[in-house]
Amino acid sequence: MQRFAPGILILLAVAxxxxxxxxxxxxxxxxxxxxxxxxxxxxxxxxxxxxSNLPFLFVGAWGVWYVASARSAEGLRDSTERxxxxxxxxxxxxxxxxxxxxxWEPNNETLVWDRLPIAITFMALFAAILAERVGRxxxxxxxxxxxxxxxxxxxxxxxxxxxxxxxxRPYLLTQIYPLVAIPMVLxxxxxxxxxxxxxxxxxxxxxxxxxxxxLDTPVYFIGKIISGHTLKHIGAAVSCYLILSWIQQxxxxxxxxxxxxxxxxxxx
Length: 268
Fold this sequence. Notes:
Elements: H1 5-18, H2 47-51, H3 54-68, H4 79-104, H5 108-133, H6 136-162, H7 169-188, H8 196-214, H9 216-220, H10 228-249
Helix pairs in contact: 1-7, 3-4, 3-10, 4-5, 5-6, 5-7, 6-7, 8-10
């Protein structure tokens, strides 16, 4: 199956881009600027949606500290992986700041600073997984283009909104494609580290968080205690923590069938 892996991933990418010819532009839904729980507290508007971003700040800062420290040596085999995950956790931190800023005053202008670090987070993680499983050089070469492309989708959306023809398709692709492609990479290529189940759990938690986001109002009206969007923030932060725990707990796998053969020698 591994011999067909590159073709499968390329075909998936081509199919994702080709979908633009079949799916019409997706404008920004108006409900996304009007969340179910708008209760203020302590002078903070939309209190729970604002403060529920604190876990992103905590996990992101913890991740940056850990990856930059000597403690991470056993879970990161080289500097390439280290700086990729530094960008990932830095973007997680900025997601907490940007999302809190947006929920303080929801509008399309503040939403840019919410979505920008999210797009970078997804692209950085995707490139890191490619570097680990497909090949170190592949991940390194694709890292900057992927991050720039992810950021560009946010500016593209904002520009089209200004033109009155909003289009979320590229931005949505920065989330949907990695969520599909990363499990495929994990399945098609041999594991380099232990504890991959933590990464799978992190991806599953994010999918659950997106479901809560869609169910924002129904969840809130079950007792009017907490909204689906607030739970989305918490679930997404747990997802990031599970990725951090994966890096903390994993260890390099030495394959007895090919001693000394590390994945950076795989060819895509």
